């Protein structure tokens, strides 16, 4: 069975290649400043954003508070087709949307058979608005990363640019509504003027991990 890999951008590929070359040459990873200088990236914060994205996509890890704390992740064994190693990248709201940033809390190795779609990452559920879907507070939801979803699917969505929530998608013409499935919770009507994006589809869950 072929192993699927989360796509990275050309810039992220350049960053990863430079890190790999420096580790092979020097036996240690470069600093963020050295990466920026070598690749013509003006700010350390921009370099850090690329490194964090590579971490979320499973290509490396970043040890906090260390100048040379980047570590490359071992390439997956193509023979190990029955398990997946998924990053847990924060929290998702089953209630009012949560402000969110991408960070890798830890990695979990799980059975591929648990999921209806091939998941790319896990997020921890906060809230009870999706209990009717069998999604409870504290569950780890698996997300299949895609910007495309159909009416009626359960999606991970970003509202207002940086608020992350899981709901059932109601889409009719220009109207987008995110529907909870639990008493006491109201739908979220997406304002056409605010940023809105489908981050992925619900692929399954791990209970109370």
Automatic annotation (TrEMBL):
A Gene Ontology molecular function term of the record: DNA-binding transcription repressor activity
GO-annotated biological processes: DNA repair; DNA replication; proteolysis; SOS response
Residue range(s) of DNA binding per entry: 32-52
Pfam family, one: Peptidase_S24
Domain LexA repressor DNA-binding stretches: 8-69
Transmembrane regions: none
Keywords: Autocatalytic cleavage, DNA damage, DNA repair, DNA replication, DNA-binding, Hydrolase, Repressor, SOS response, Transcription, Transcription regulation
Site (Cleavage): 94-95
Keyword DNA damage in annotation: yes
GO cellular component: protein-DNA complex
Domain Peptidase S24/S26A/S26B/S26C, residue spans: 87-200
Reaction equations catalysed: Hydrolysis of Ala-|-Gly bond in repressor LexA
Catalytic residues, chain numbering: 129 (for autocatalytic cleavage activity), 167 (for autocatalytic cleavage activity)
Enzyme Commission identifier(s): 3.4.21.88
InterPro entries in the record: LexA, LexA-like, LexA/Signal_pep-like_sf, LexA_DNA-bd_dom, LexA_repressor, Peptidase_S24_LexA, Peptidase_S24_S26A/B/C, WH-like_DNA-bd_sf
PANTHER family listed in its UniProt record: LEXA REPRESSOR, LEXA REPRESSOR-RELATED
Family to which this protein belongs: Belongs to the peptidase S24 family.
Function text: Represses a number of genes involved in the response to DNA damage (SOS response), including recA and lexA. In the presence of single-stranded DNA, RecA interacts with LexA causing an autocatalytic cleavage which disrupts the DNA-binding part of LexA, leading to derepression of the SOS regulon and eventually DNA repair.
Subunit structure: Homodimer.
Protein name per the record: LexA repressor
Native organism: Rhodanobacter denitrificans
């Amino acid at each position: 069975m072929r192993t699927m890999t989360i796509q990275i951008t050309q810039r992220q590929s350049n960053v990863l290649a430079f890190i790999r070359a420096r580790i092979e040459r020097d036996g240690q990873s470069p600093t963020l400043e050295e990466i920026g200088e070598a690749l013509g990236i003006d700010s350390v914060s921009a370099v850090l954003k690329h490194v964090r994205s590579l971490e979320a996509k499973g290509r490396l890890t970043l040890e906090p508070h260390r100048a040379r704390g980047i570590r490359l992740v071992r390439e997956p064994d193509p023979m190990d087709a029955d398990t997946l190693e998924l990053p847990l990248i924060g929290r998702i709201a089953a209630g009012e949307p949560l402000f969110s940033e991408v960070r890798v809390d830890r990695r979990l190795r799980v059975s591929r058979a648990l999921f209806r779609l091939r998941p790319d990452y896990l997020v921890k559920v906060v809230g009870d608005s999706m209990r009717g879907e069998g999604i409870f507070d504290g569950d780890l939801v698996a997300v299949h990363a895609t910007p495309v979803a159909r009416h009626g699917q359960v999606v991970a969505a970003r509202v207002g640019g940086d608020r992350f929530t899981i709901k059932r998608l109601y889409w009719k013409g220009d109207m987008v509504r995110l529907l909870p499935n639990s008493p006491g919770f109201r739908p979220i009507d997406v304002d056409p003027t605010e940023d809105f994006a489908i981050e992925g589809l619900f692929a399954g869950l791990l209970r109370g991990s």
